[in-house]
Amino acid sequence: SNKIKNAKLVLLGDAGTGKSSLVLRYVKGQFVEFQESTIGAAFFSQAVAVNDETVKFEIWDTAGQERYHSLAPMYYRGAAAAVIVYDITNLIPLIIIQATFARAKKWVQELQAQGSPNTIMALAGNKADLLEARQVSAQEAETYANENGLFYMETSAKTAINVTDIFYETAKRLIQA
Ligand code: GTP
Ligand code: MG
Q: C-alpha distances in angstroms, 50 versus 55, 59, 72, 101, 174?
């Protein structure tokens, strides 16, 4: 018997970390070098089979720019899963080192305080193709994730490393929950 589970999933993280690029890679198998910054939020859906069950993700790709922060609760409220994205390189002009990792930690705190208690949380260290520009070590992120109830993966929307995997792992954990 194939059970179907609808699951609201929200992507959160600083502007430019690659949230839209991860979704575009996952849902359409595409990558663009000049992805436009999201306004408000964008919606996608994607089904994933795990053993004999199907998880239908209803994906909210939120806008990372600070001016949209107040909209975020609409998207994470009732979410079964959250993927919190930072950029391992922090190659964002005029932003200090580790800024996107620090922002990711703030999202985790906000979810822990205001979100649903059993939301599955994934931490994506994105742009893993840019290893030579790394500013946040895998060890540091892994330790943080373990201590805060998230699972951690390094992803690249550009090369597709771990993109299907992070959504699949999320679906697996949803089914086990
Ligand atoms: P907002 O919508 O403003 O919150 O940003 P976002 O998190 O959706 O980032 P977006 O997907 O727009 O990506 C920002 C830029 O980073 C784009 O120019 C992408 O091409 C680039 N980018 C995204 N993911 C990767 C990646 O894995 N590797 C590399 N090298 N570049 C990436
Ligand atoms: Mg975006």
A: 7, 18, 29, 30, 10
Q: Averaged in consecutive runs of 10 residues, what is the pLDDT profile of the chain (177 residues)?
A: 90 96 98 95 97 96 95 96 94 63 95 93 97 91 97 98 98 93
Given a contact cutoff of 8 angstroms between Cβ atoms, the answer to whether 48 and 54 are in contact is: yes
Q: What is the pLDDT of residue 62?
A: 98
If DSSP codes are grouped into helix, strand and coil, which group holds residue 50?
Answer: strand
Q: Tokens for 177?
A: 């929950």
Counted residue by residue, the chain has a size of 177
Q: Indicate if ligand 1 lies below 6 Å from the C-beta of 132.
A: no
Does ligand 1 have an atom closer than 6 angstroms to the CB of 103? no
Give me 23's structure tokens.
Answer: 């979704």
Which residue has the CA at smallest separation from atom 30 of ligand 1? 127
Q: Provide the strand spans (E) within 27-87.
A: 41-50, 53-62, 81-87
Exposure on the CB side of residue 92, measured as CA atoms within 13 A: 22
Distance CA(141)–CA(125), nearest Å, equals: 8
On whether ipTM exceeds 0.90, the answer is yes
